[in-house]
């Protein structure tokens, strides 16, 4: 390329001294040479063009050096477009929220990965002006622009012999290139190659002048000829190496183009391998899920001890043997405009039968891990979502046909909302009120940056919305959420949340607190006693599902005390009111149960929860490591009523999509069966359900406290190992339950 340009330049000089006829003939030769040279220039720059196109494609597809399903929060721009989250999070087997609009959170120190995990993946990476996406050429984020004076190239010294030569070429032809910050990167090994590129730019400029008119050439071509020859000799090695590099890049580009997955879609994933174990409890745990037939009617009980005994004990020790489990997620991310994003996730896992939450183990939701998913190694579609910006990128709209959660749109504002690198417990991930409604299907929402420090996020989702009998607005479960996120200082982010939910069974759906709190008093599915105070199947009056409406308020805080210390907190309070009154029953107001009449009254239940956390980044001087301590109270039923006699059934719900539901009872004495030789099931030890005089509408009487510690050890950008454990006192908010301990060594691969 360079030597061709020199030849053209020599011919150009000759035209200045030739006759008119010779000039005309020479001009034709010059044009032919210029065309040939331009062809070679186009060919040699083709690889650079392909690299530029690929770089732009990477920007559109948010290709980063680190695969970040639930990466750190953007702090450079508070536009919602710059804060779309990649994941995933939760009830969808994902902790993240993986592509979720999230507030631009606390300003990040240089060692970004060492900070507590924030659940975002910025859509900066989908914008054309992305400053975060990795570039194939490393420093190509700084575009090379033309400059008009060599003095702009700070590190080219006036004492260098090339300085005067460069100055002449630049001032005569306006051709050399440099970086916008005025440096030529002369302190790096690449300087000579960059210099050669600048020289080549001058030769191409001369080429262009020749093609247009030789009259525009310099008036002293002989001096320029000698300068170019000397510069060409000086940079001969670099120019040859540059050609070889271009050839190699062209070859690699051709391979990439033939083997690439897609021009519009990026595939990434996460694999979590974990060793899990637990001990303690007994109670809770060690129970059996028993199918009974009472009077030809099927029913279920969780046998945690025979109510006939003075001191009932579970039939077995809790089954908490050490297990090796996994969760794997594969995601496809597609952009059609450079700002929008379509995401699809496939998920599989094998911590089956509810893990440690099942009756044989600890029999409580308070023992659930953040990363567990009992999919029996089957692969399921976990989420489909499409997000796009509008109104000058101030608003991001989200359409989620499948896999919706409130946290898909409402920012968790939690440092540990990441199933692979955040909290090891389900409770420790985020405020439980953002899980109200349970596993949803379809939802929509928007994230509006009202001003730089203020954002409004709104979401609405339903369950079974694909069923024409229910639809989007008549579903048996629906949830609306709104959140105002404020950033009063660069080190503090707060959120104020409101949730309104309708469900046809009175269940909150957070699956982080006591069964009594989740059901707002054990109402739905239970039975009321007849005049003889018999509440078991047959004579008992079936309550069925009682529809309810829940209103909840919550608040969250993240405060970066120092560059290495982050304090977090959140809290929530729910108000649930059942929409139907208690039906008439024969035992209503019976003196034997010592309860006033309740028929016709509408039940209610209020729950409370909170958590405090402290994270220390880069402990022991290891960049990327994180030590975290969490302390809080899982959701507790703090007020309920009216207290009513009857018999309840175990809570039997699906915690995450496509996972089989598991019965849980917290070893609550009110749910224990008894033996009855007359009415019991003869095939199961004459067991039958048993209730109590104050079975429904009774608040939790003890308090469970959750303590959690974990240390995330960063091996590299794609691999981390997290040992951690948590323990819960008075599990299920029941005083008779002993403290349970749960631990794990979680290994997370991201690709």
How would you sum up this structure, described in words?
- This protein is of the alpha+beta class.
- 18% of the residues lie in helices and 31% in strands.
- A hairpin with an 8-residue loop joins strand 18 (604-617) and strand 19 (626-641).
- Helix 1 (2-15) packs parallel to helix 4 (191-212) and helix 1 (2-15) packs antiparallel against helix 5.
- It starts with a helix and ends with a strand.
Main features:
751 residues, alpha+beta, 7 helices, 16-stranded antiparallel beta barrel
Number of helices: 7
Q: Compute the CA-based radius of gyration.
A: 34 Å
**Strands of the largest sheet, in order across it?**
3-6-7-8-9-10-11-12-13-16-17-18-19-26-27-28
Number of strands: 28
Strand content: 25-35%
Q: What is the overall silhouette?
A: elongated
């Amino acid at each position: 390329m360079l030597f061709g340009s020199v030849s053209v330049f020599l011919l150009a000089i000759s035209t200045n001294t030739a006759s008119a006829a010779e000039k005309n003939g020479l001009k034709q030769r010059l044009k032919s040479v210029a065309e040939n040279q331009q062809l070679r220039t186009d060919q040699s720059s083709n690889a650079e063009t392909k690299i530029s196109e690929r770089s732009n494609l990477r920007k559109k597809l948010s290709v980063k050096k680190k695969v970040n399903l639930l990466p750190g929060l953007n702090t450079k721009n508070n536009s919602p477009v710059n804060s779309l989250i990649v994941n995933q999070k939760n009830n969808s087997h994902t902790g993240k929220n993986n592509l979720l609009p999230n507030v631009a959170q606390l300003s990040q120190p240089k060692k970004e990965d060492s900070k507590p995990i924030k659940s975002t993946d910025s859509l900066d990476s989908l914008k054309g002006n992305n400053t975060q996406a990795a570039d194939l050429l490393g420093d190509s984020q700084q575009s090379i622009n033309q400059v008009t004076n060599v003095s702009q190239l700070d590190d080219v010294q006036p004492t260098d012999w090339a300085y005067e030569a460069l100055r002449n070429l630049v001032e005569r032809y306006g051709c050399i290139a440099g970086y916008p910050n005025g440096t030529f990167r002369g302190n790096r090994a690449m300087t000579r190659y960059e210099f050669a590129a600048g020289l080549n730019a001058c030769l191409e400029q001369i080429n262009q002048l020749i093609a247009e008119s030789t009259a525009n050439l310099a008036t002293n071509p002989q001096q320029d000829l000698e300068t170019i020859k000397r510069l060409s000799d000086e940079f001969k090695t670099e120019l040859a190496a540059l050609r070889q590099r271009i050839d190699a890049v062209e070859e690699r580009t051709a391979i990439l183009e033939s083997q690439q997955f897609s021009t519009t879609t990026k595939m990434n994933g996460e694999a979590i391998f974990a060793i899990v174990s637990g001990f303690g409890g007994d109670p809770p745990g060690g129970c059996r899920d028993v199918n009974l037939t009472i009077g030809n009617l099927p029913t279920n009980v969780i046998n945690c001890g025979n109510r006939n005994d003075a001191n009932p004990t579970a039939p077995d020790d809790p089954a908490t043997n050490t297990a090796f489990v996994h969760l794997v997620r594969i995601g496809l991310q597609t952009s059609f405009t450079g700002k929008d994003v379509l995401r699809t996730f496939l998920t599989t896992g094998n911590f089956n039968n509810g893990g440690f939450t099942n009756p044989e183990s600890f029999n409580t939701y308070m023992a659930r891990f953040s990363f567990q998913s009992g999919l029996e190694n089957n692969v399921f579609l976990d989420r489909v979502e499409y997000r796009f910006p509008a109104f000058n990128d101030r608003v991001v709209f989200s359409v989620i046909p499948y896999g919706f959660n409130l946290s898909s749109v409402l920012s968790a504002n939690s440092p540990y909302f990441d199933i692979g690198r955040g909290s090891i417990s389900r409770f420790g991930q985020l405020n439980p009120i953002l899980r109200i409604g349970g596993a949803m299907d379809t939802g929509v929402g928007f994230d509006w940056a009202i001003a730089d420090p203020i954002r409004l996020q709104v979401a609405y989702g339903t369950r079974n919305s694909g069923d024409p009998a229910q639809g989007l607005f008549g579903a048996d479960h629906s949830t609306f959420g709104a959140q105002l996120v404020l950033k009063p200082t660069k080190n503090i982010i707060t959120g104020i949340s409101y949730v309104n939910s309708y469900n046809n069974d009175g269940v909150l759906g957070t699956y982080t607190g006591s069964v009594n709190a989740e059901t707002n008093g054990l109402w739905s599915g239970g039975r009321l006693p007849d005049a003889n105070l018999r509440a078991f199947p047959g004579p008992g009056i079936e309550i069925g599902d009682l529809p309810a409406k829940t209103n909840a308020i919550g608040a969250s805080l993240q405060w970066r005390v120092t560059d290495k210390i982050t304090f977090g907190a959140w809290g929530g309070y729910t108000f649930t009111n059942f929409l139907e009154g208690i039906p008439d029953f024969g035992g209503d107001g019976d003196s034997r149960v010592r309860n006033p009449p309740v028929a016709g009254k509408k039940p209610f239940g209020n729950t409370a929860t909170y958590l405090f956390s402290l994270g220390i980044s880069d402990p022991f001087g290891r960049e990327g490591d994180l030590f975290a301590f969490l302390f809080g109270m899982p959701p507790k039923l703090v007020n309920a009523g009216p207290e009513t006699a009857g018999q309840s059934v175990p809570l039997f719900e699906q915690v995450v999509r496509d996972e089989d539901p598991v019965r849980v009872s917290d070893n609550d004495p009110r749910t224990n069966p008894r033996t009855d030789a007359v009415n019991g099931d003869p095939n199961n030890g004459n067991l039958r359900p048993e209730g109590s005089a104050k079975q429904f509408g009774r608040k939790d009487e003890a308090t469970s406290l959750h303590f959690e510690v974990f240390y995330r050890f960063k091996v590299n950008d794609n691999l981390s190992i997290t040992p951690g454990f948590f323990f819960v006192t008075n599990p299920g908010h029941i005083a008779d339950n002993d403290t349970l301990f749960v631990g794990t060594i979680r290994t997370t691969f991201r690709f």
